Amino acid sequence: MTEKEPLFSAKNLKLLREPLGSSNPITVQVLGICSALAITVQLKPAIVMTLSVIVVMSVSNVVISLMRKMIPPRIRIIVQLVVIATMVILVDEVLAAYAYDVSKQLSVFVGLIITNCIIMGRLEAFALANKPWPSFLDGLGNAFGYGLILIIVSFFRELFGSGTLLGYQVVPESFYEAGYANNGLFVLPPMALIVVGIIIWVQRAKNNDLVESN
Amino acid sequence: MLVNALRRYIDKIKPNVEKGGKFHFLKSTFEGFETFLFVPNTVTTSGAHIRDANDMKRAMILVVMAMIPALLFGMWNTGYQHFFAQGIEAGFWETFWFGFLRVFPIIVVSYVTGLGIEFVFAQIRGHEINEGFLVSGMLIPLVMPVDVPLWMVAVATAFAVIIGKEVFGGSGMNILNPALTARAFLFFAYPTWMSGDKVWVAGLANGMETVDGYSGATILGQAAQNKDTLVNGLGEPYSAWDMFLGTIPGSIGETSTIAILLGAIFLIFVGVGSWKVILSVFAGGAAMGLLLNAFGGNALLDMPFWQHLIVGGFAFGAVFMATDPVSAAQTEKGKWIYGFLIGILAVLIRVFNPGYPEGMMLAILLMNVFAPLIDHYVLEANIRKRLKRAKVQA
Q: A202 and chain B: CB distance < 8 Å anywhere?
């Protein structure tokens, strides 16, 4: 390897792009579903959650990648958890300090980023075997892919469930006077599952490579 | 004469939708209408199959016919409850006409939405149009409260057809009963329009003037609040005959046990509905009711077991929902287990979860999910039994 690889080579860009579509962590790998159901009732917490996951994921990917040659394979899971947990606590404290309301809304779910299988999955599958820069891009890409679905789902859930977006009323009052009503099912977690299902349906209808042959 | 002319007309336009014709993309729609009007003349070409003239469409129409008594009674009862709440004496036809005008739009909305979606999906997938919705489209209005806004019926129907049925591959592949899916959707999405005291009598939700002290609570609604005597809107106690005949508030088609039983007899007679399921649902409900009566303790636990069977949607669910051949258990032994558990669960949910005064819907949906599991173990048991027999002889 004499020639230096450019920072945004085709291979590296793929790391960023693929998780948004054909290897999306939620709709294709079906990871991180629990948090996708829990915090998508409204758009704002979903966005904050997305940002938190982006930070935790990209930084811990880089840290693990830097340490990849020092970590004894037998205790690698513990080491990964320590790194993730440190990042999660940092994010949690920052949220509590600067965005107290949202931090209250997300409550336990920020802490539970530790258990988000996407993060562990990327550390195991990618950061342990790759250099820091590709690992950083991989972390970013997967966090974006995760956040994209979160934001789509929460957009529909807040719009139909509460008639608001980011807390602002968007369904006009005249609709309610004409007999429109907010859909209570969208506030309940099962509807998040159904919306995710519909996204998977649409995605597979457009991209036939994703459909398993049986 | 007219029939022949129609046949000739259909034959004339048929080439247009065959392969290569300019309206080929409408083939599913065309076939849907053709086979709706005439028995198809397709013949099985290979193997020795016996084809009954009674195809899916005819079977579905028979179920719709079985619902007619409940539907007509529901229309009359809609008017009756409305005028009763206002304290107006109305004649039979006036009462029926009022109910007809309230119920008919719900039926139209349900059919137009559901069939519209079915046609679009059949067209996209190049399938024949599924007949299943002929029944669902009639079941949906019958399990709605009469005051439900029409757009909610449309949304629920669309949800039931797309999420309840088409994502699984259309009629025959669905896990859940589509009509109950529609009702469950509304129940959780718009609870204020689907439960409480106001929605069961036409006009009450819109602030209609009533006689003093009137209440539109259903029998199960009152029972869930542990009322000792179950009373009508003016506070007079209901007799068992009222409940059996169906002159009580409730969803449009569910109130009259006698009209539903007429439908049940018809379904069993023409061989479309499974008497095993119907009987075992009632047996399960009665068994659970008796068990709860034996413990007793409060008004709800002491509610006579036979009363559970004639109030709310119990009879309607047993006859028209539980027997749905797609979502019910398929094995003969499985049908007994499936029905019996529906009966048990329905009464159990009614009595122990006052949040859901009517347990029938949830009981059937839950058992729909378990039906394949029941079938699996019935089949396994049968295989084991036969293997044992084979070994003895060997």
A: no
